[in-house]
Design goal:
Layout lengths: L7 E8 L2 E8 L22 H33 L6 H34 L7 H41 L1
Antiparallel strand pairs: 1-2
């Protein structure tokens, strides 16, 4: 059943050679030739094209790092799911790594869209505090997950050592 409420979508328009994304609804029309997934031509005055490509490379580096954290969380879970290590010790470490990766992907996407919009308007936003916050959150999360894994390993090996000592006596 289709509700009468309309869903949002992004359409792009051109203004003096710049691409502007505007929020619209599915019921309103977007020119399909200006689809957000089609390559577009930007007026290359000054260094706009170079700056947008540099922002894209930076976005891809942040996204690659975020995907690395997601992969690390998944690999950690895969490595420990059949070991005697208590699941209650490893699952939080995996979740912290997955959340780190998700946070970095979201941060990278938001930052990229803000930078491209600002470049098209002729400025460049410097976000020192936000970048430092992202690095700090990621570092704290990584250290926390490493600590959780080390504690789980120490508990597991501590139990195995006690069992070996009891068997030898």
């Amino acid at each position: 059943m289709i509700h009468s409420r309309t869903l949002p979508r992004l359409c792009q328009t051109r203004n003096q050679g710049f691409i502007i994304l505007r929020r619209t609804t599915f019921s309103s029309s977007c020119n399909t030739s200006n689809s957000i997934f089609r390559p577009i031509t930007v007026k290359n005055s000054g260094s706009i094209a170079r700056d947008i490509l540099a922002a894209e490379r930076t976005f891809l580096a942040w996204a690659r790092t975020g995907l690395g954290f997601v992969g690390a969380g998944s690999a950690l879970f895969g490595a420990y799911h059949d070991r005697p290590t208590p699941q209650a010790e490893i699952v939080p470490a995996c979740l912290v790594l997955l959340l780190n990766g998700t946070f970095l992907l979201g941060f990278a996407t938001r930052r990229y869209l803000n930078v491209v919009e600002a470049i098209q308007k002729g400025s460049f936003p410097v976000l020192v505090g936000g970048t430092l916050m992202a690095v700090a959150i990621t570092a704290i999360g990584t250290l926390a997950s490493l600590g959780l894994v080390a504690r789980a390993e120490q508990k597991t090996h501590g139990m195995n050592i006690l069992k070996d000592d009891r068997e030898s006596n």
